[in-house]
Amino acid sequence: PTLLYTIKFEIDMAYCSRIIRMVSPSIAGIHRSIGTITELQKENQFQQAINSETPTLIDFHAHWCGPCKLLTPTLKSVVEERTDDINLLMVNVDNFGDIAEDHDVNAIPCVKIYKEGKIIGHFVGVKNRLEVENIIDESLKG
Question: Which of 38, 45, 68, 132 could form a disulfide linkage to 61, CB 3.0–4.6 angstroms apart?
Answer without folding.
Answer: 68
